[in-house]
Amino acid sequence: MERKVAIIDYGVGNVHSVSHALMFLGYRNVITRKHDDIRKAAALVLPGVGAFSQAVINLNDFCLTDVLNEEVIVKRKPIIGICLGMQVLGITSEESPGYKGLGWIAAEVNRFPHMHNLKVPHVGWNTVAVYHDSIFRNLEEEPHFYFDHSFYFNCSDLYAIAKCDYGFPFPAAIMQNNIVGVQFHPEKSQTNGLKLFRNIFRYFDI
Amino acid sequence: MLKKRLIATLIVRNGIIVQSVGFRKYLPVGKPEIAVEFLNSWGIDEIVLLDITASNEKTGPNFAIMDNVTRSCFVPLTIGGGITSVGQIQRFLNLGADKVCINSAALEKPEFVTEAANVFGNQCIIVSIDVIGASVADYKVFDAYRGCAMRMGPIDWAREVESMGAGEIYLTSVNRDGSKAGYDLDLIEPVVQSVDIPVIASGGAGHPGHVLEVFKKTNASAVSAANFFHFSEHSVITTKALLRDAFHGIRLNTHADYEGCSFDPGYRLKKRSDDYLEDLLYERIEAEVI
Question: Helix (H, G, I), strand (E, B), or coil: what is residue B246?
């Protein structure tokens, strides 16, 4: 049986946009919050548009935390966190004090400080400097991606595989073993985003 | 470097795209899904779909409009028109929208903006501000739902929606809408300066030169145009080619990029030399495989 990619539907994601992008590339996928689908999937995508607290509450309400821990940490299943889906990979967020993320990556999510002439949220197409050849294969030297966020993922440079500059450099994409997180929206970054999805899935042999 | 955005706004009325003139006259253009597909392949930075049926006919939002448009849209898609509840936003996001645009509901109940931003994050909530008036002295916020001008000016209202949790402001000059007379620069810059969130300028584009003017003379984060994208081939790419040459901070990475082209004083693309075109005939161009 051909295995699918599971797009995790936890109530705060633009799940259909991600699904359309994967469908365009020919990956069979299912939008789901069923444990069975998550266990059977070849890879997971954790999308996210919304507030940190809502994401954490929903992950708990839908009883997804345990099954995700088991699949991703124990069984090392590849997962891609997008935007808020990347931020919940971290431990805490300044957006919602008191709420704990999945805690897989040692990171704190911080708000962009007030900077002269720089608008927050950081919205639009920005270039990123890339530090990982296979994930950013077939792209120009400083590719554009679409960002839309007020908070950034504050983690050690060890994890960053791409950095974006908005007043200061911050991680645009991170990776640790089977866990990938992107702050931008590949599903909304036209050709570059589609290529990135293709590269990530190829890297994990899916 | 963060690029300036070029946004296409599709005004939809009863399920078809229309050209809007001064919020009064509407001329039919075509199907939304076809326009989205073309704009996407021409490398537009964002698409805003505004369904004016909802406010004109005083009905709720039309979810059916999403059926076909999202399949071929790989750029951010914002939906507006008749949104008054968190449940409706949730449904649009589920159907493939990335952001929502709120107008009348914010005027009626400003705390709705806060409520929505708390659930979906402020980056998801665009507040649209329509402004009526031809000069700085008499700019007033226009309530399109009721069809009347409000007492307050655009700056006060922009500051208020920012403090309520809006993530972006979509600023339209009603007087310039559909006029092809260019954007109202006197309106745009003071609003941009008065808030810390991005401002999208809209209303009045007649040719690509008008877009260039906004980016050169104001600090708007994005420019939106509706009508002029519909009526010529590659309109988005040629507009971006002009912007790239004159101003740089723009994203242009479609296969056709009009590198080395020039424009006439009316901002129309000039024909290339016959020799160049003859050479092109024999050049093999491989389709890109993602």
Answer: helix
